[in-house]
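Re: the 613-residue chain
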Amino acid sequence: MLFPADVGLDLVKSKIKILTEFLDVYLKIANVHTVDFYTQDVWNQFVALPPETVISRLLCQQGETPEQEMGVSVWDESQKLKDVAAYKRVTQDHSLPNLGVCTALDDLIQEMWGNKQKDVFLKPSTFMSSKKSHEVELMSEVIVSFAKYCNIQQVIDIGSGKGYLSSYLSMQYGLNVYGIDSSSTNTSGANERNRKLKRYWKVYQRQTKHQNQDNSAPENLKEEPMNKMEHFEGAKEQISHGGEQENSPQSQSSHVQTPVTDTSLDSETSEKRNSGVSAQFVGSIDNEFDGTDNLLLEFLSTDAVEMNSLSRKKKDLDDKEKERRKTASLEAKAKQIEEANLYSPLTLHVTSTTELQDIISDIKDSMLVGLHTCGDLASDTLRIFVTKQELKVVCSVGCCYHLLSEEFELSGDCKECCHGPWGFPMSQYLRSSIWRCGRNARMSACLPLERVTFGQGLPSKSLFYRAVLQVIIKEHFESGKAYTTLQRTKNKNVGKIYSKSSSFVDYIRKSVEKLGMDDSKMSDSLIQGYYDRYMPRMKELEAFNLLKVALSPCIEGLILLDRLCYLKEQENVAWSALVQLFDPLKSPRCYAVIGVKKSHCSKSTYHNFDNKF
């Protein structure tokens, strides 16, 4: 092993084996579809306890549950759940935090950054929601740490969406970022949002510096400067919603957007910037102004500054100094042009076979990243990293496990319709066992355990409505053609009708109509009768969903360990790890799979990693 603290392949395989043996028994709960809860009498089939007991035991905080003897069986003789405390304990034991395979984020950042202070001019919370800000700030630290460590300047953001991560990486850290997303709406919005953000970037930078100076000054000197830029809050609002209220973009999703350029300054101002006055003059002027006067200088052409205000007049400079400043000016302009294109949103559907050279002409040693890439895109990100020589580091946070294609879930004609590598399983180790998870279980893996535990419950009433709807469909439309088609296609999704319905009766009528069935023979009182009959059993549905929530970290853990195992099976990967990046209360899909190529690690780098890890 190149890195002593690197979790070895054998350990990862052993944890996968433990999880699969555990889930072979418990997956029956996760694979129950809520739609069939009442039609298949799920509660009485799987649980031998009152729902109130299950809810109270699962939602109690750690330490409030009575201690259970080790080895106590979770199931009774008929394989029904009989001990909730034992069930809760065993699911916790098989969750990622307790499997001993994750690398601590704090240790990773501390070792790679050391005690160096990071200058942060723009906090992501300025223009993002608290959730997105939390994700972007922490993931950026990890990305920049590895980029600096491996001497990488180019980042490719797969599934970049509206460009929150990409724009922050480019503006805060000066990385050259290509954001690739299959939605032209997202890339168009990212273009517009980034254009606005760049327009005010220097302003935010200067204001943050000024505020930091104010915060460190004595109390009697902390007075608000006069004439602060009144448009600052307006600019924040513009950028926060930039790209969300724009006109419709081009319809072809395969179109590749041109790199972003800053068009916020008119041509006249641009010409003045090229007039030959050194950028260092502006720096010296900045130091002579206090308050927000500094901010205005960022948008003034250098010709607009009175030459009398300069500490040294141009005529006083000798030829050598003039030449030096001229050179510095040219270098500053070149850097300005380069920085104007640090972030380039591109519209493209990416798969594991995508050739990056076809879309990025100047591709060089790069880091591949993805923040909450949905379904197979997370798996494809790792495959692209392994197969493309120019990619040296990968940092991928996946989501939407229910959208993964699963190799051993389908059979017959359905399987033949799917092409390309499967999203799950990825590793040769797990594939060799022909292990099947199932879509309902993968859906359960998306349930937010921490949020539910701390009071942010599941949408139980909408789930209850849907389960009762299935009873009505079975009892009134089972012999109909529409019901037969519904069962054959397994398309039981009625969409977001609950939020658009005024009552249970209204929900049922809208749903039945959407499914292509005739409800004309059903009276309102008949429909309401179903609600009255099943409402006393709603607690059963709530309690069973909590059982599924408790299993979610175990199923997610298997999916993520499979991805980590895949990287560790590759001969060209030097180091790989599973790292919890985010607070699960803020961002439930909080784990990143990180890998570093051997080809990019010199012997000295290996030595450094040996010392660090």
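The first helix runs from residue 9 to 30.
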